[in-house]
Write a structure and sequence with these properties.
By secondary structure, this protein is an alpha/beta fold. It has 16 helices and 19 strands. The longest helix is centred in the N-terminal third of the chain and has 25 residues. The chain is globular, with a radius of gyration of 22 Å.
């Protein structure tokens, strides 16, 4: 039985802890905060309940596998898991209103034909078919296997050119690697979808994951493919209930949690990680250390040394405020019950995508920063996601409704989120946009709570309050994340900022990969 020290109690870290405990190891989790879950937090007030992190789950098979492998009760026996149908309602500036069914490709085709005109559904379906090829080619190396030392082969974009059908997958990658003129997601959208509303639909999937469609690789088309193929799911009580269930599963497996226990150093002995040092000076010895935190924080814990393996340049490399975007959320306590015909998730699209992308990401390379004194103003017309769960656990009674509005925004740094002005004005803009989905919204508001990237930074310790995106092939490997193995034997990385990237499913897989590497050894190549 080995002693395992885990830094952080986020979802990836807890997933690793539960699996390692089942394998017979003694696992202790050290969390600087007062509770578990990391970014999957909870805000409660006056009987209203809101998720502070993601509100929906995709690829639930990751957590089904986790709960099957760590106990008798399955995921569905532990939490109430339901498919969201329709998967989403999309509202466009020209008044177009389209409902997309959950996990129904034929239904999506019909819906897009009805909303955008004949042929729109077929063009979307053709794009999703090509995205499936990219998914089939990269699923194992990007989700089910530790990142290989020869990760450079993932720098080629696996998205096949239209309308040419690709043959062997090896040839597909060979054509993408270093190929001049490989299109970005935005270029693919304009070329293959044609209709500006369909283009906006595709780009909104990237934006929702914190990706700039102007620079993201074409392989980002796998994001709508995954949603359309595997569905969108809601956990009763909110996503915090999933974090609570995982925490309880860890407890049943005898994982020990130490809260308000900040790790200030990683102990090295005989050339390997040998424990952690806490802020109070306590040293806890361990045979292996799992860092479930932003890897950009690791040099400070290693005496200034970089944790990356020799020759590996897949590193966060982020200075404060220069990382991926964050999210601004507005929690609304509403008088009046939720209508029976309300849709769980509505996306209200911006009327000016170009201006929104510049506000969130800045100008694209080669066009100048466009930022005054290095600062950007929040978007005047953000794309807004409206979540209206039909869940009694989120509201005090049926005469009220809990609604969450959210938008992808620049991290703290490019936008100063410390003052009330930027946060308040942006919250007002979200509410104005959301009135297209909820008529009379302002008149129903009892109170609102605004959370900005500054709050995310305080909760997670991530500079700027950035939110990690999923790992993607293409773009020369710029959308990969640091490997789960580090240069220091015994030190492993888990969580959304390490391979295979951000999102609940990806974080859960990082925990599975780390557990496999520790139990089976560093030559382990993933689940079969």
């Amino acid at each position: 039985m080995a002693r395992i020290a885990v830094i952080g109690a986020g979802m990836g870290a807890m997933a690793a802890a539960a699996r390692l405990a089942v394998a017979g190891h003694r696992v202790v989790v050290y969390e600087r905060g007062r509770t578990h879950g990391g970014a999957v937090g909870l805000f409660e007030r006056d009987g209203f309940r809101f998720d502070t992190g993601p509100g929906l789950l995709r690829l639930p098979a990751v957590y089904r596998d986790l709960f099957v492998k760590t106990g008798k009760e399955t995921l569905e026996q532990t939490v109430r898991l339901t498919q969201v149908d329709p998967a989403a309602r999309h509202l466009f500036a020209d008044g177009t209103d389209v409902l997309l069914p959950n996990a129904s490709r034929a239904g999506v085709l019909r819906a897009l034909d009805g909303a955008f005109g004949a042929g729109a559904g077929e063009r979307w379906s053709d794009l999703v078919n090509r995205a499936r090829e990219a998914w089939d080619a990269t699923r194992r190396p990007l989700l089910e296997e530790p990142l290989r030392t020869d990760w450079q082969w993932l720098g080629g974009d696996p998205y096949p050119a239209a309308p040419v059908r690709r043959g062997r997958l090896g040839g597909l990658f060979a054509r993408g690697r270093g190929r001049p003129g490989v299109p970005t997601l935005a270029e693919v959208a304009r070329r293959e979808l044609v209709d500006p509303r369909a283009v906006a639909l595709l780009e909104s999937h990237a934006l929702a994951h914190g990706l700039d469609p102007r620079t993201a690789p074409a392989s980002a088309t796998v994001l709508p493919y995954l949603e359309q193929t595997f569905g969108t799911w809601y956990v009763g009580g909110g996503m915090r209930a999933l974090a609570d269930a995982l925490y309880e599963r860890c407890g049943k497996r005898k994982v020990e949690f130490c809260f308000e226990a900040e790790v200030t150093g990683i102990v090295e002995k005989d050339g390997r990680a040998a424990g952690v040092e806490l802020a109070d000076g306590t040293v806890s010895e361990a045979d292996a250390v799992v860092a479930g935190i932003d890897p950009a924080l690791l040099p400070a814990l290693l005496g200034g040394q970089e944790p990356w393996r020799e020759g590996e340049d897949v590193t966060p490399g982020r200075e404060p405020g220069s990382g991926p975007p964050g999210r601004l959320s507005v929690f609304l306590a509403l008088r009046g019950g939720r209508p029976d015909d309300a849709v769980h998730r509505t996306v209200v699209h911006t009327p000016d995508r170009a201006a929104e992308l510049t506000a969130v990401f800045g100008e694209t390379e080669g066009k100048g920063s466009g930022d005054r004194d290095g600062l950007r103003a929040p978007s005047a017309h953000p794309t807004v996601t409206v979540l209206r769960p039909d869940d009694p656990a989120t509201r005090p009674d049926d005469g009220h409704e809990a609604v969450t509005l959210s938008a992808v925004v620049a991290p703290h740094g490019p936008v100063d989120w410390t003052g009330a002005e930027a946060a308040g004005q942006t919250a007002d803009r979200l509410i104005t946009a959301a009135e297209a989905a909820i008529p009379g919204l302002r008149d129903r508001i009892l109170w609102r709570e605004v959370r900005t990237p500054r709050h995310i930074a305080a909760d997670t310790g991530v500079a700027g309050g950035s939110v990690p995106g999923p790992a993607l092939a293409g773009a020369g490997g710029r959308y990969l994340h640091p490997a789960n193995l580090t240069r220091l034997p015994g030190l492993h990385l888990a969580g959304g900022w390490s391979h295979p990237g951000g999102g609940l499913a990806h974080a859960g897989m990082s925990g599975a990969l780390v557990a496999g590497l520790i139990v089976e050894g560093q030559d382990w190549r993933g689940s079969q």
